Amino acid sequence: MSRKLLFLAALCLFAATAASAQSVDEIIARYVTARGGLDKIRSIKTERITGTIAFAPDIQGPFYLERKRPLRLHMEITLNGLTMIRVYDGKSSGWVYNPFDPHVQKPTVEPMTAAEISNIYDEADFDGPFVDYKEKGNKIEFAGKEDVLGKPTYKLKLTNKTGDVSYFYFDVSGGSLLKWEGTRKVNQKEIPWETFFHDFRDINGLKYPFLIESDSPGTEQTQRIIAEKIEVNIPVEDARFDQAPTPPAPPAPAPAAKPN
After folding, report:
1. What local confidence, expressed as pLDDT, does residue 15 receive?
2. Average pLDDT along the chain
């Protein structure tokens, strides 16, 4: 190949790379606008979501999630009278009370492992992985177009600073996030997982999905989250995040049936 052709090939490669990078930033900018804008996203200091989570028709119960800047998180899920609690102080410490662990006969509050703390960052991050994504160590690439829920979407590949890869699908016409695709750990195994976002509503000028449906393709693993109430910029005490939770009292036994 001549030097001129090499130069033209390099020029085309540079142009394609620049166009791809520009497209990524344009897609993210449209998503941020669809949510309500960068200023509005950053104005949220606290958040509380209450609703119902279901893993099967007969396995469901209430949950609530509280978050507070910077990166503080408190979550509780109750199923069949048992409550799991996860708390993160936003810095370096977290705690878990998990009565559903089949390997533990008497559950106690345990400190989060380093791996759990590393993985909880995305849950606690108010702004999501796209706002200031470069500063967060995220690498984002354009991955083409696909139809999701009957709508054309832009597909972005995100590689975070620990090397985990996931894919996000944004509505071409409106910019909203319609689908997430990646893996999650179930019974100590990484399995493929996909999540769909529905029923967007306006809360204090920001769009939130009130229905989130997830599943593992090819398996019976499912999850359905229905938000019943979302509150923002409400008073939440730091103590909710800065100390280990107190385990809830076990459910009272059912009263014995009286003899006839």
Report:
1. 39
2. 88
**Full domain range(s) for residue 206:** 3-240
- Closest of 193, 234, 197, 231 to residue 212, by C-alpha: 197
230 located within any domain? yes
pLDDT in tens, 166-205: 999 999 999 999 999 998 876 667 889 999 999 999 999 9
CA-closest candidate to residue 97, choices 122, 124, 114, 116: 116
* Cα–Cα distance measured from residue 48 to residue 63, given in angstroms and rounded to the nearest whole number: 11
Residue 36 lies in a domain: yes
CATH number of the domain that residue 183 is part of: 2.50.20.10
CB 65 within 8 A of CB 74: yes
How many folded domains does the chain comprise? 1
Question: pTM (2 decimals)?
Answer: 0.85
Q: CA angle at residue 127 from 237 to 189, to 5 degrees?
A: 90
Residue 164 DSSP class: -
Ranges of residues in the chain whose predicted pLDDT is under 50: 3-19, 21-22
CA distances from 61 to 75, 124, 222, 235, 253 (A): 13, 22, 15, 25, 19
- Contact between 171 and 179 under an 8 Å Cβ cutoff? The reply is no
